[in-house]
Amino acid sequence: MFSEVVDAQVSPTGQFDILSKYEIHKLSDESRGPQYQAFRNCSLAVLNSGGYMDDGKELLEKYSDFDISVIPTERSVKLRVTNAPAGAFVDGKMIRGIAEHLFAVLRDIIYVNSEITGDPRYNLVSAQGVTDAVFHILRNAGTFNRNRTPRLVVCWGGHSISAEEYDYTKKVGYELALRHLDICTGCGPGAMKGPMKGATIGHAKQRDRHGQYLGITEPGIIAAEAPNPIVNQLVIMPDIEKRLEAFVRTGHGIVVFPGGAGTAEEILYLLGILLHQDNRDQPFPVIFTGPASAAEYFIRIDQFIANTLGEEARTRYQIIIDDPQEVARQMAAGIEKVREHRKETGDAYYFNWQLKISTEFQRPFAPTHENMRGLALHKNQEPYLLAANLRRAFSGIVSGNVKDEGIRNVEKNGPYELCGDPTLMHSMDTLLESFIKQQRMKLPGRQYTPCYRISAD
């Protein structure tokens, strides 16, 4: 009879192969400290890769007996897992890619706690201090290659998309890879997996054996969007704000596929940054794309942006429908301009230091009912500040939809209430209703109950 859970010990991969005695004991001690719950939950999410589930609360409850611990050895550490999802194993042995991701969790969760959060060198209140922290987390994860020319395309889009939209993301990834471009996504299923899957074929045809498939996530979302198996570099940032900054600092261009509230949050974050005066002359190609059936989706997104952020925001992206080759051609041309700009200004190819990101986009937002109700959702402010507040609103909706803490918060206190200018709130309500009708809030077949309520001041 097939068991749904497995107990095992996992040997180290990568940078954990050789550790000092101090490092071994520190990892062992801190893995059972205040960061244990985050370490456990992220590890469970990684082990559930491929599971058809987008509810963090459901995953944690299904495997409530799961446990993970760090076992010291003479030269390194091993990980002991008990009651782990059986899908992570083949004939009793853990799949290598999942084992790599499991040690990435250990690296990022424990490293950030011991080397970043508690270190006075990192002023996580200042804009530069946050950016320094993002840089060091990515560098420690081994994502940078100073000899690599700009070629990393960030792909955003929903985990709940149609089969036609998923196939389209694969075609775009394939065309990008044929032009020697790499892929970075939020690492989950749907539009986060499709481009990577298509790119593996494109890279293989070009005999490009060093394709980068970078997945960037954070502890709150990883349980709902477990890393897909194609990711060959996984990074877990401390929170959604640092995750978003990691995307725009490391990526050389961004492709946006259809999605739901999370994709809207990403779009608003990006446009808010690009609308800042200091960034208006910086090349940064952004393309919205999908199959012909997704045209209506992008019409609504475009209208929402025009109604809230204004016409200038619409100049920072182009919309290409049902043409993967043109998407790849335009992206390759845009990234060439990025390369020329970085070369002229002396900025690093692997990390965009010059991009201005103000603290409004860096400060972690806790989506409590009070904070959601208090958001400044009105047009009497700079467009980039409105984008920051709209981003927070959509971030709260994502939390209420799929994150364990957010789901429990809504179950206990009822839906979040969002208040603001009547015209702005009408635009937001119209967009969200379209997401619900198109089944973009939850996986198909799952009933969606809104975690929010919209009202006008």
TrEMBL record:
Entries under Gene3D superfamilies matching the protein: 3.40.50.450, MoCo carrier protein-like
Residues in Pyrimidine/purine nucleotide 5'-monophosphate nucleosidase N-terminal domain copies: 9-116
Matches recorded under SUPFAM superfamilies: MCP/YpsA-like (SSF102405)
Domain of life: Bacteria
EC number: 3.2.2.4
Domain Pyrimidine/purine nucleotide 5'-monophosphate nucleosidase C-terminal residue range list: 335-454
A Pfam match: DUF4478
Broad class of enzyme this protein falls into: hydrolase
Protein name: AMP nucleosidase
